[in-house]
Specification:
- This protein is mostly beta strands.
- The protein has one domain (18-125): Lipocalin (Beta Barrel).
- It has one helix and eight strands, in the order H-E-E-E-E-E-E-E-E.
- An eight-stranded antiparallel barrel has the order 1-2-3-4-5-6-7-8.
- A hairpin with a 4-residue loop joins strand 2 (56-59) and strand 3 (64-68).
- The longest helix has 12 residues, at 2-13.
């Protein structure tokens, strides 16, 4: 029995180090349905926010969410995806939950569950190069 415990410990130590996956709430390692590659590591911008342009979200594969816009400072927070496909992140101490309505290589539609009710937000993959439009003052 002692020999087995030593082999298990050495076997675990020999595993490749890497970032701890923060993407999934489930600890079984099962991924939610859908192509996660289409969501992560790309810049998503909100094309229909004419009054406050340049809203963007970047869901990094390490579990970091970058939120920015052309009119306010950026924010870094943790995000994860639940097994049902909902995205969850923290924003100013509040937990935000959003259903992925649709996701493709070029478009992301989220339904955010906010205190005032559900809000649908549409994003497109940001073109490169991208420059913030002028904000009316």
């Amino acid at each position: 029995m002692r020999y087995i415990a030593i082999v298990v410990v050495f076997g675990l130590c020999a595993c490749e180090d890497g970032p701890v996956p923060l993407l999934f709430e489930d600890r079984t390692g099962a991924a939610p349905s859908g192509a996660l590659e289409e969501l992560v590591n790309r810049v998503w911008t909100q094309p229909d926010s004419a009054d406050l342009p340049g809203v963007m979200r970047i869901f990094l594969a390490d579990g970091t969410l970058v939120q920015d816009s052309c009119w306010e400072t950026h924010r870094l927070s943790l995000w994860r995806m639940e097994l049902g496909g909902a995205l969850v992140w923290d924003e100013d101490g509040a937990t935000i939950k959003a259903d992925v309505v649709s996701l493709s290589e070029d478009e992301l539609v989220l339904r955010l569950h906010l205190v005032g009710g559900a809000e649908e937000q549409r994003y497109v993959a940001a073109p490169v190069p991208y420059v913030c439009p002028d904000v009316r003052r």
